[in-house]
Amino acid sequence: MEDLFSQIETARAAIAGRTSITPRVGMILGSGLGGLADEIENATVIPYAEIPGFPRSTVHGHRGELAIGQLAGQPVMVLRGRFHFYEGYSMQQVTFPVRVMKALGCETLIVTNAAGGLRADWAVGDLMQIADQIFFPGMAGHHPLVGPNDDRLGLRFPAMVDAFDTELAALAHTVAREQGTTLHAGCYFMLTGPTFESAGELRFCRTFADAVGMSTAPEVVVARHGGMRVLGISLITNIALPDGPPANHIEVLEAGEAAKPKFAALLKGILAGM
Ligand code: HPA
């Protein structure tokens, strides 16, 4: 089998051969948030199935295609639908698209997700700038950088205390303020899922973090390994409290749907300000 570096190059070449645009910003749109991809101008849309090495998306609400074009004046590459560890993909597969983004020329990753809010005073539909993350599966060894390191891709021991770019975060807060959108800052706790958290797990998570979800952290790690700047934004789709009602996927998708215009406006404002 080809090594990772060659697999990335094969996927890069397949995508680059179909567009004349060099994307500078990579975006990953989470559950229910994919609609923004429809607003890309001069879009080249490529189903994941047509890209060598790309896994396929299996979750409802994730379409499984990427789009390259212009959005708010920036050359972007948008992943509509991501791969989750809970679907059975390896951490290497989950993060492969980020490697390809970087290889195509993206210097920045904007990553979004749907997350459960762990703060009782937050509301469904609020947004959270991810200022920090706890990659819980990674701490337990499910980590995309385990294995031989290819120095062409990044350092053996990349730092993560500065994973989230403070300038991009400041820009996000400025734009949110201008738009009258609530944007908290907080720590994102990643669990594998696919179960929503038990009461005890929620008590555990809220001791250390402000929102909980099943994605994002591995992509952030690999983006940082590759030297990309990272901005992360969570949409709070439910408030996940130990004594609250059980979470469910329908409410997650509905909250994503309701927040679409606001979230899209924020992301476009950020792109325009970059
Ligand atoms: N827990 C985990 N993942 C999630 C949640 C949640 O409450 N909401 C959206 N994604």
Architecture overview:
The protein is α/β, with parallel strands linked by helices and 274 residues long. 32% of the residues lie in helices and 24% in strands. It has helices at 4-16, 91-104, 136-139, 166-179, 199-208, 217-225, 249-273; strands spanning 25-29, 41-47, 65-71, 74-80, 108-117, 127-135, 183-190, 211-213, 229-239. Strands 5-8-7-6-9 form a 5-stranded mixed barrel, surrounded by 4 helices. Bound molecules: hypoxanthine. Hypoxanthine binds next to β5, β8 and β9.
Whole-number radius of gyration? Answer: 17 Å
Q: Largest sheet, described in full? A: 5 strands, mixed, barrel
Determine the N-to-C terminus distance.
Answer: 39 Å
Morphology call = globular
Quickly give the structural class: alpha/beta
Helix content: 25-40%
Order of helices and strands: HEEEEHEEHHEHEHEH
Q: Would you identify the regions where 5 or more consecutive residues have pLDDT less than 50?
A: none
- Ligands bound, unique: hypoxanthine
Number of strands: 9
Q: In what order do the strands lie side by side in the largest sheet?
A: 5-8-7-6-9
DSSP strand (E) fraction?
Answer: 15-25%
